[in-house]
Specification:
Oligomer: homotrimer
Largest interface: A-B, 33 and 34 residues
Distance between the termini of chain A: 64 Å
Number of strands of chain A: 0
Helix content of chain A: over 70%
Strand content of chain A: under 5%
Order of helices and strands of chain A: HHHHHHHH
Number of helices of chain A: 8
Structural class of chain A: mainly alpha
């Protein structure tokens, strides 16, 4: 049996993550001045897309089909953005809880995969997909370049949270590992935003450098 | 047991809906002067995409895997558009049956979810997805802005049909509810097209209006 | 029982196909100078996307969840492209093995569907999806027009391989049919590339030609 843990007991973290991602979905509908139904639609697909893909791939029942409260949380989040609105400064403020949500979902996704007896590599992939697929679906549906294409430390932060959780869980248990994984991913994402960190970008590889040298020589 | 109803008995309505959406998919391939195979490909993903997503999410067997006649109907529809062609006026004429198909699929999708013991909120979502996902997949694959982004009463019409059906079904039975839901959704869509109805678009919410007033003050 | 065949025995062909498609995914990340994590992400979704969609639709366990070696193969392929790099000439050279992978995956996908007791039409569709969906997902996620929109003999080659395999398999057995189907699809794709073959493009259909004649008359 998978033990009851910080991850499985207080659904409040899952709900908070869904609400937050849903809010970023509704904000994606704002620049085109959509109506409230479209705001809610984007909120729902963004807030629930990652978990939905994870559950499909794991062959598990879709989380919001089994627990429709998730639908309500995501829809309410979209409605609130439409009613209350936000300032551009709010979008920047949201990057902070978005970093927390990204990291939390990476841990939650990896944990669910392990609970369903997936191997370590599969669990890491499920963590990354849970954390990132909602945003990717949001961007594709909004006909915008995906967050993947922005060259920020984003997938990398989710990957870090998932790898740390999956590696630490057999050693220190699910509760401690979830905290360590969450902190590692969120800290990396926040530090990267504050300090402008990026991974090295593709520079042509060995062949590319060779050909540049050949030209220079 | 879910009773045999107008919805489950005469598959002819489902086939007609698939053929119609498939035709709109083939038409999306026309401006780029694609070949017949691409026409058929777009016809199939558009005609069957919504029902496929619904069945995946419900954990049900995919409808066209169990009944390949659906594949034949969608492919034939795409082939006919390629052979016969259409005039721009036909595209406008098709908005009428498209409105009927949208509403019918919203009812059919919600009904299938209820039959599989989903709750009311989930059934409404499945109705909306069945009605709209094929068109969204068509637009994304054709690298066009999705119909979602057009600010028309489109998702709203599907949502209306599904909500009316799910609400009325316990009161008046599946047959009567399916007619009422279908008529409500189709009438809303058609009226919106004829009269240029739109829902209010996002105007910045409470915060946005405040900041506009602040600037004016 | 489905017999052990050329297709099911030597997974080496499947791994080679995954590695190859994964490489094309990583190459899609190159022009934007992404980091290594993004290269690997694109490699994985491109290399495994087609088989994943097929397994979801067939209700079968996802192949890389059951056999994580596939993840390793796809990720390694993306990593190698980042480290070694490639020249534009390599992209053209890759069109050859890409043609082989396309055809092989069409046969493998159709075969898996038949093994799971799908009908002939469904098996052909699964072959085409296995061969093409990875590339479509890659292009959509990279915010590029999909390969579908290029008017090349691409889906048609996958379709040919799948139809030949499914038609020949009851007559000459899975082994011989897989070779014939594979050769037919790959030869068509390669000949089309070398000789610039295309299917006739949409010319307005019967109605379109009529209206052109009416204008000319």
């Amino acid at each position: 049996m998978h033990p009851i843990s910080l991850l499985t007991l207080p659904n409040v973290f899952s709900y908070a993550g869904v609400a937050l991602f849903a809010a970023t979905g509704a904000m994606a509908a704002a620049p085109r001045k959509h109506d409230v139904v479209t705001f809610i639609f984007f909120a729902v697909i963004t807030g629930l897309g990652g978990g939905t893909l994870r559950d499909l791939l794991l062959g598990a029942p879709i989380v919001w089909v089994a627990e429709p409260t998730y639908l309500l949380v995501a829809a309410t989040s979209g409605l609130l953005i439409w009613v209350i609105g936000y300032r551009e400064s709010a979008r920047r403020l949201l990057l902070w809880p978005d970093a927390l949500g990204l990291s939390a979902f990476a841990v939650i996704g990896a944990d669910k995969a392990l609970a369903l007896h997936a191997g370590a590599a599969v669990a890491v992939v499920m963590g990354v997909l849970t954390a990132t697929a909602g945003g990717i679906i949001r961007d594709i549906t909004a006909h915008e370049p995906s967050v993947l294409l922005s060259r920020e430390i984003y997938i990398t932060a989710a990957l870090t949270a998932a790898i740390v959780y999956v590696s630490a869980q057999p050693l220190i248990g699910a509760d401690a590992a979830s905290i360590v994984g969450f902190v590692a991913g969120a800290a990396l994402r926040i530090a990267a935003m504050r300090l402008g960190w990026r991974l090295p970008s593709y520079a042509g590889g060995v062949l590319g450098r060779t050909s540049v040298e050949a030209e220079a020589g």
